[in-house]
Write a structure and sequence with these properties.
Layout lengths: L2 H10 L7 H8 L5 H27 L7 H26 L7 H35 L6 H44 L1
Helix pairs in contact: 3-4, 4-5, 5-6
Length: about 180
């Protein structure tokens, strides 16, 4: 950015009047665009998975599957949805400390815990879903290859999820380091 552009932006700053209601709305965490995307994803996943629970018994022959497979499937879906909801609640309330540095450290701890639970519950849900669909079929060579392909896809999805969590945690760790470096000066 050129110095002229910077001066021009500085002089034009503050000319657009914002009402107090606008300022309050802008500063609320709930209005953050990232949280809005997460909320939309959460609502869509929850509706889809709960709808799946309503129809799975009829559409996917739940009555022909063993009882344990039905219980595992329902448990896996409910754990996955509960983890998503708890994760969203955790992200909506990032401030949890006496100052910003302590809040970020606490948030980092919660995000680390959330990442572990998220990966575990996603794995459990995937495994329970596979167990449900495999519980009443005769496994042939072709079906074995399909199962292997599904396992590879699920492993890749878990790996990508792990990378996303790792990047988030790395970013928060960098913020904590930046605060520590500022205090040392």
């Amino acid at each position: 950015m050129e110095l002229k552009d910077l001066k021009s932006d500085w002089q034009n700053a503050g000319k657009a009047f914002k009402s107090e209601a606008d300022l309050l709305s802008m500063t609320k965490i709930i209005n953050h665009p990232t949280l809005k995307r997460i909320r939309i994803k959460l609502i869509a996943e929850t509706i889809f998975l709960l709808l799946f629970l309503v129809i799975y018994y009829d559409w996917f022959d739940g009555d022909k599957k063993p009882f344990y497979a039905n219980i595992l499937l329902v448990t896996g879906v409910l754990l996955y949805v509960a983890n998503d909801i708890l994760g969203y609640i955790s992200m909506v309330k990032p401030i949890n400390g006496l100052n910003l540095k302590l809040s970020i450290k606490n948030y980092l701890t919660r995000i680390k815990r959330l990442s572990v639970f998220s990966l575990i519950f996603s794995s459990i849900y995937s495994i329970f879903l596979i167990i449900y669909f495999l519980s009443a079929i005769n496994l042939t060579k072709e079906k074995g290859f399909l199962l292997l392909g599904l396992a590879i896809i699920l492993f890749q999805l878990m790996f990508w999820s792990y990378r996303v969590w790792t990047n988030r945690i790395k970013s928060l760790k960098q913020q904590v380091k930046d605060f520590d470096a500022d205090e040392d000066k």
